[in-house]
Design a protein that fits this description.
By secondary structure, the protein is an alpha/beta fold. About 15% of the residues lie in helices and about 10% in strands. The protein contains five helices and 14 strands. Strands 1-2-3-4-5-6-7-8-9-10-11-12-13-14 form a 14-stranded parallel beta sheet, with no helix packed on it. Helix 3 packs across helix 4. The protein is elongated and about 75 Å long.
């Protein structure tokens, strides 16, 4: 009796294993979307979910009609669709632009044959291995931000790239990308970068984002003369003299560093946006030449004398929260100001600012103000709070 039961169990196990193997083999043979669609009921749930998303995108449940429509597409946007399996996309070889941001993708092997792609956004997923992307040599724009990537070596073959975003990964070394000479935009913020020597070769860059790393020495960046935007926020930088030669810059973010001397900024006269929040700055005289500035952020420093700001008549947004300011008369001529934050200082009187009639947001909270007057159209100068971070995200 026991032998009979054992025999039956063995037969069942072999049959079940063979069925699983056949199903796996069948999956490996599937190439086109129509095959995935027609065999949807036998597919793993993750694959089936992707098929359903594509059918919805095609606007039909008919496999033949959907296949015709999807196969002719050159652009596909599937943001935040909870997709984890890309295999049903593997036959859509006419695609030139795919946006898959914010899904649950870890395996990008199904994209290997989509060699017509020029734009690919797979940010906000769970990708660690980018080797399959090495074949996509027509890519000009690649976004891999918000994944789990540590090795970017496979991207070295993508020499047509103009824009590369690998923000918020686990990258410490990008030396392998030194031949990507066509790059004009590179974002490597929120990674593990310490040494920026590896960036010196990217001389065509106009935008470089290195925020939230572990950088202290910026000397290698002095050769990047084409830069118009540079973000070095949240690093360990104290010496910014190497930046003095980058006179094409119009946007520079140096928030949250260890900077006390800003003399190097005096020649950067094309700047329209400058972030210096949370440093150790006392003397702001070097800023007096930067007359094109429209947005200036100087929160949480040690500034008491703001007379150098009196020449910055193009300013629209000025942040001076948490300094040591007493006298605000130097701001009297900044008639274009719309947003002014003077909270947490040592100011007793703001009547001198009464002619700033363009002010929309004016904050003098946590000051020993001895007057109730508010300049311009601000009616709650003691309590109006600026939406600082939201706006900064838009302009930096």
């Amino acid at each position: 009796m026991n032998k009979a039961i054992l025999f039956l169990c063995t037969i069942f196990a072999l049959t079940h294993t063979k069925a699983i193997a056949n199903q796996a083999l069948q999956q490996n043979k599937i190439k086109s979307f129509i095959e995935y669609c027609q065999q949807k009921s036998t597919l793993p749930q993750a694959t089936k979910d992707t098929v359903e998303v594509l059918l919805k995108e095609a606007g039909t449940q008919d496999c033949h009609q959907a296949n015709r429509k999807l196969s002719s597409l050159t652009e596909l946007r599937l943001l935040t669709k909870q997709i984890s399996d890309l295999k049903p996309l593997s036959g859509l070889t006419n695609l030139t632009n795919i946006d898959l941001w914010g899904n649950k993708i870890s395996d990008v092997k199904p994209l290997v044959n989509l060699t017509n792609l020029t734009n690919l956004n797979i940010g906000g997923n769970k990708i660690s291995d980018v080797k399959p992307l090495a074949s996509l040599t027509n890519l000009t724009n690649l976004d891999l931000g918000g994944n789990k990537i540590s090795d970017v070596t496979p991207l070295a073959s993508l020499t047509n790239l103009i824009r590369l975003d690998v923000y918020s990964n686990q990258i410490s070394d990008i030396n392998s990308l030194e031949n990507l000479n066509n790059l004009t935009f590179l974002r490597v913020g929120s990674n593990r970068i310490v040494d920026v020597k590896q960036f010196a070769n990217f001389t065509n860059l106009t935008e470089l984002w290195l925020e939230e790393n572990q950088i202290s020495d910026v000397r290698p960046l002095s050769s990047l003369n084409n830069l118009t935007k540079l973000n070095l926020m949240s690093n360990q930088i104290s010496d910014i003299k190497p930046i003095a030669s980058l006179n094409s810059l119009n946007s520079l973010d140096l928030d949250k560093n260890q900077i006390s001397d800003i003399e190097a900024l005096s020649n950067l006269t094309n700047l329209t946006t400058l972030g210096l929040d949370r440093n150790q700055i006392i003397n702001i005289k070097p800023l007096s030449n930067l007359t094109k500035l429209r947005w200036l952020f100087l929160r949480q420093n040690q500034i008491s004398d703001i007379k150098p700001l009196s020449s910055l008549t193009n300013l629209r947004w000025l942040e001076l929260k948490s300094n040591k300011i007493r006298d605000v008369k130097p701001l009297t001529n900044l008639a274009k100001l719309r947003n002014l934050n003077l909270s947490s200082n040592q100011i007793t009187n703001v009547q001198s600012l009464a002619n700033l009639t363009n002010l929309v947001n004016f904050n003098v909270e946590e000051n020993p103000i001895n007057t109730k007057s508010c300049p311009g159209r601000s009616t709650k100068c003691g309590s109006t709070k600026l939406k600082h971070r939201t706006f900064r995200h838009e302009i930096f």
